[in-house]
Amino acid sequence: MIFCDMHTHTSCSDGTYAPDALVSLAKLRGLSMIAITDHDTVDGIERAREVAPYYALDVVSGVELSCEYMGSEVHLLGYFIDVGNSDLLSVLAKQRMRRRNRMDEMVARLRDAGLSISLDIVLENARGGVVGRPHLARVLIDRGYARDIREVYSRFIGYDCPYYVPTRRLNLGEAVEVIIAAGGLPVLAHPIFVASRLLPRIVDDFPLWGIEVYYPEHNPRFVLELESLAREKGLACTGGSDFHGSAKKEDFLGRVGLTKEQAKAVFDCYV
Question: What is the pLDDT of residues 226-237, one digit of tens each?
Answer without folding.
Answer: 999 999 999 999
